[in-house]
Structures are given as structure tokens and as C-alpha cells.
Design a protein that fits this description.
The protein has about 300 residues and is of the alpha+beta class. It is built from 6 helices and 12 strands. The chain has a 5-stranded mixed beta sheet, with no helix packed on it. The protein has a 5-stranded mixed beta sheet with strand order 4-10-9-6-7. It starts with a helix and ends in a 32-residue tail after the last helix.
Length: about 300
């Protein structure tokens, strides 16, 4: 039996298809910001601490089951009583208190870091959520019309949130109707978007130190907000700083092919930087909000 258990302990980890890094992440996705890494480390070490406590608890439980099970003649000898044992009660009170205090301290430390807003961010982005899409404004960058650069999604267009890597970014968010939630899984972070942040006593401004790597990441609404909540997606495009600056420059100009200001997708396409700058969303799909265009048995487009 012991050999079988040892063999299973050796074979199971090697046949699950998980790398050592995936095992240590305990199911968390790979983060792309320093804040995400801090939260992942907190989760990892909290899980390790829980496993250690679990092993000790299971060990004590099985030890008691095996070595203190009822034997012949036990009816004649009453079991040893340990209630009102002051040292044991102190130990069983102090140790859990220490564990909770340590976890609380690390949690507060990470929470303060994630919620920290430093002055003079490198980029400011205003996030507006509405049923059932997103608008992203860059208040410090004016377009050809003289107004801030803006990207708004529709039933035909997935909104693209284009951001630079290696720069501190500040987000200011608000909803025009109901409560939504801004969620990019690779940020390992989500925050509810309220219609009136001041009335709801919500800090609607938050920052990320930087995005560590380029890529395309799916963003979602993580708060049930109505019939098309599941379709309320957007895409983050993280570009190197030089490419992002070129993208902003294009957004400030008129597209000679259309005679209108460059859209987010048109500006990305004009950068000619491969799949990263594909003008259309690559991992999400537009959807139609006209319920008369499909039968009751037909799933929504892009689902």
C-alpha cells in the first residue's frame, strides 16, 4: 500500500501536463503588471500557508484515529480528559491569531500597493461604461477635431484600448447607466464602475505601474448589467512606447483615405507592425442588439 501511494505521489504531478510555474501559481493566470504579480504572490503564499496548516491538521487527525482508536478493554478504563488544559487552550488560541494577523498584514500591504496613486502619471485614460459597451478617452491627447482622442465600441465594432508598455497609466472610470465592472484578467484586478462614484463613495481613479509585455488581452464587464452583459467585451493592445507614440500621432491626424480622423483600428493598421497591430479585434467579436434579427433558438453572434 505504501509503495502504491509513493508511486501515485510521483506519477500524478508528472502526468497532469502542468509546469512547475503553473503549479506554483495555483491556477492564477500570468499577470502583466507589477500589481498583478504582487497579488499573485499573496495568493501563492496564502495557499502554501493553508496547505501547511491543513497538513498539520490532517496529521493530527489521522494520528488520533490510528493511535487512539478504541481497543478491547477500553470500556473499563475511561479516556484521559484534556479539557480545561490551560497550556493547550492558550496554544490553540495564540497560533490561529498569529496566522490571521500575518495574513491580514500581508493583505493590507498588497492592497495599499494596488490602490496607490502617484502624482503625474505618464498616461491618463478615462473609461466610460454603458449598456452594453465601452468608451476610452485620452484627455491629454487632442485629435484632429480638437477634442480628446476617443474610442467607442458599438454593435459592429469592438473597442480597442491601446496602451503603452513600461509607463505608469492612470484610469478614471464612470458608468452612464447601471453598475458595470472593468476587468482585464491579465491585470488580475477588477473594479466596479458606478454611475456616480461620488454619491457611492467610490474611488474611481486607479493606476498600474506599467504593463510588462506587449500583447492583445481581452477585457470584460464583470458585473451583471443586463441582457448583453456577456457580450460587453473590449481588447487591450499593449504596444512598445515608440509604437504607442506613433499611434497617438496618427490619431491626431486625418486619414487621407477616408477624409475623417483615424479610428483606433485604422491607426493600428497604419503602423504595419504585424498581428500586434491588427486593425480589428482578434479575440472578441461584435454582436447585434437587435433581437428581431435572430430566432429564439439562435445563439447571439460571437457567443
Amino acid at each position: 500500500m505504501a509503495k502504491l501511494v509513493a508511486l501515485a505521489a510521483l506519477v500524478i504531478p508528472l502526468t497532469t501536463g502542468c509546469s512547475v510555474d503553473e503549479v506554483l501559481r495555483f491556477g492564477w493566470p500570468v499577470g502583466v503588471t507589477p500589481q498583478a504579480e504582487a497579488m499573485r504572490n499573496l495568493w501563492t503564499w496564502s495557499a502554501v500557508a493553508a496547505l501547511i496548516v491543513g497538513v498539520i491538521t490532517w496529521g493530527a487527525m489521522f494520528w488520533a484515529i490510528i493511535f487512539h482508536r478504541k481497543r478491547k478493554g477500553d470500556d473499563d478504563t475511561p479516556p484521559r480528559q484534556t479539557q480545561y488544559n490551560l497550556p493547550i487552550e492558550i496554544v490553540f488560541t495564540v497560533i490561529p491569531t498569529i496566522i490571521v494577523a500575518v495574513l491580514f498584514g500581508f493583505t493590507v500591504n498588497v492592497q495599499n500597493y494596488v490602490d496607490r496613486d502617484l502624482p503625474n502619471p505618464d498616461l491618463r485614460v478615462d473609461v466610460t461604461a454603458f449598456q452594453w459597451n465601452w468608451r476610452f478617452d485620452y484627455p491629454d491627447d487632442k485629435g484632429a477635431s480638437g477634442r480628446p482622442i476617443s474610442t467607442q465600441g458599438s454593435s459592429e465594432v469592438i473597442p480597442l484600448l491601446v496602451l503603452p508598455t513600461d509607463r505608469r497609466i492612470q484610469f478614471t472610470q464612470q458608468s452612464t447607466d447601471v453598475i458595470h465592472s472593468f476587468f482585464v484578467p491579465e491585470f488580475l484586478f477588477k473594479r466596479d464602475v458606478f454611475p456616480d462614484p461620488k454619491q457611492n463613495d467610490q474611488d474611481n481613479v486607479w493606476q498600474i505601474d506599467k504593463i510588462d509585455r506587449t500583447g492583445a488581452f481581452v477585457g470584460r464587464c464583470a458585473e451583471l448589467c443586463g441582457a448583453y452583459h456577456a457580450m460587453m467585451n473590449f481588447e487591450v493592445r499593449a504596444l512598445p512606447p515608440d509604437l504607442f507614440d506613433r499611434w497617438v500621432t496618427l490619431r491626431e491626424q486625418v486619414n487621407p483615405a477616408t477624409g475623417a480622423p483615424y479610428t483606433a483600428g485604422e491607426a493600428l493598421g497604419a503602423l504595419n507592425c504585424g498581428e500586434l497591430c491588427a486593425p480589428q479585434a482578434t479575440t472578441t467579436y461584435p454582436f447585434t442588439t437587435d433581437r428581431t434579427q435572430r430566432s429564439a433558438s439562435e445563439p447571439p453572434s460571437g457567443s
